[in-house]
Amino acid sequence: MKITNILPWFGAASCALALQVSATTIYLVRHAEKQDDSKDPALSECGQKRAQALAALFADIPLAAVYATPYQRTQQTAAAVANHKKLPVQQYDARQPKLLQQQLQAYAQPVLVVGHSNTVPELVKLLSGIEVAPLTEQHYNLLYQVQLGQQGSVTIRQQPFQCQHTNNI
Question: pLDDT tens digits for 117-146?
């Protein structure tokens, strides 16, 4: 097993083709920037722009499914990609990561999972056996690409998209 950090993530949407895709690829990303610290906030303006940048990244990548928790911020982030792919956003329970793991491992094509700062690293470890650094409240720009299999690997890509204002949470 190996972990690779690749920075930057992409410079333009056309670079999306640079992502290596295999039938056993699971992409995991934290939701984009949220409006506030309330229980179920929507995406901020910056978060909406980041979600659209994520959709552009996945424009040329075939996805079998898009998963997100039932919260507004994850649903809105996932919807940006799913709408472009004409896929529904499938909900999962973040409290049952092993159930999600089983569902993801059954796919023959790549899948995108949108989660939270506390669930994405947990899912990466569960899927790959590789522990990654925890996400802080400032980490919205990391994409984990997990290659399943005996010699599983995790590639971390960083999106250079930056908000013009820094008051987003």
Answer: 999 999 999 998 889 999 998 899 999 999
The phi and psi torsions of 117 (rounded to 5 degrees) equal -60, -30
| Sheet with strand 153-158: strands edge to edge | 2-6, 153-158, 142-147, 25-30, 111-115, 65-68, 89-91
The CATH number of whichever domain residue 27 belongs to comes to 3.40.50.1240
Query: pLDDT tens across 68-103, in order?
Result: 999 999 999 999 999 999 999 999 999 999 999 999
pLDDT band at 169 (very low <50, low <70, confident <90, very high): very low
Residues 117, 64: Cα–Cα separation, whole Å: 24
Q: Which amino acid is at 31?
A: H
Domain that residue 83 falls in:
2-158
The answer to the question of residue 134 being in a domain is yes
Q: Is residue 169 part of a domain?
A: no
What does the alpha-carbon distance between residue 32 and residue 115 come to, in Å, rounded to a whole number? 10
Distance separating alpha carbons of residues 13 and 57, to the nearest angstrom: 5
How many independent structural domains does the chain possess?
1
